[in-house]
Amino acid sequence: MITKKILEFYRKTSPFTDLGLYSDFAKNLPNDIEELCLLQRNQIIHPFDLSNEVMRNDSNSPYGDMTKVSKATLRYENDIFPTAQSIFAELLRRDKNYSINRKIENKLHVCCREQAILLASILKAKNIPARARSGFAKYVNTSGTQAGDHWITEYYSATNKKWTLVDADMYFDKDVLDFDLLDIPYEKFIFGAEAYLGIRENKFKKEEIYYSSSPLTFGLNASIRGLFFDFHSLMNDEIIFLHLPKYIVDKNFELSEEEFIELDNLAKLMLDPDKNFDTLLSIWENNEKFRIMSGGLND
Fold first, then answer.
1. Where are the domains of the chain?
2. Could you read off the pLDDT tens digit of each residue along the chain, which spans 299 residues?
3. What share of the chain is helix, strand, coil (3-state, %, to 5)?
4. CA-CA distance, 276 to 282, in Å (whole number)?
5. Model confidence pTM above 0.90
6. HSE of 157 in the Cβ direction (CA atoms, 13 Å)?
C-alpha cells in the first residue's frame, strides 16, 4: 500500500536531488513527461557513445554532429557534476537556453544515474513523489541476452494512483522496443534486489548480470553493487558509482554466509519497498555498516 507517509518521503530531496536556487526553474519546465524527457535527453551525451569511435565520428548521430565535440573534453563528467543542482548549473553556464536545440558542444557528458536523479529532482520540484532506481536491463545491451547496469526514475502518477517507471536516458526508435520508455513494464527492469536474489538462487547465470562501470564486474559482485545503489536510492541517498559500503570493499566482496543471509533479508524486503517501507527505514537508521561508504577519498 502506498501511504501518504511514503509519498511525502519521496517528495523530499537529498543532497543529490535538491535543486536549491534552480527549483523555480525546474517547476516551470514542461509537465508532460514525454516532453520533459525529450528536453532532458537533448542536454546530455552518454559517455559510452563518446568512447565509441564510430559514434564519435558520426555527423548525424541522435545527439547531433559528434565531430564538433572536442577530443580534449572529458568523456565522463560524472565526477564533476554528481548532483542535479550541479548539472543544471553547468548546463545553464554553457548555454542559458535550456532547449532541445542545445548545441552539441554545450552538452554534458553524464550517465544514466545522472539522468535518473535529474528527472527525479525536476519531478520533486513539481511536488511529484519520485525516486531514482538502480538495477539492470537487457534493453541497454544490443545482445539482448545480458542485463547491464542501469538507473531509471520511478514517479507516482496521481492520475493512475500508481508508480510509473520512466527512462530519460536512452535513445531508441519506437520500433526497436516492444514497450514504452515512458511507462516501462516492471518485468523489463531487474531491480538490484531481484538481480541479487536471482544470482543467489541460481535464476540468473553469472554472465547474465554485469556492472559496466569501473571495475567491470559480473554476477554476484555486480548484483551487490546494484542492491546497495538501489537501497540507498530508496532511502533518498543516490550515491555515486565510486561508493559502496566499506565492509563490502574491505572484504573484496568475500562475505561470510551470515553476511550474505543478512543481504538476502534486505533484498527480500526491497522486492516490495512500499509494503516494507517502515522496516527498510529502520534498517537504514540503525545499521550503520550499510551507510559507511568507501570509495574516492573515503578509503
1. 4-294
2. 899 999 999 999 999 999 999 999 999 999 999 999 999 999 999 998 888 889 999 999 989 999 999 888 888 999 999 999 999 999 999 999 999 999 999 999 999 999 999 999 999 999 999 999 999 999 987 667 899 999 999 999 999 999 999 999 987 666 678 899 999 999 999 999 999 999 999 999 999 999 987 678 999 999 999 999 999 999 999 999 999 999 999 999 999 999 999 999 999 999 999 999 999 999 999 999 999 999 988 88
3. 45, 15, 45
4. 10
5. yes
6. 13
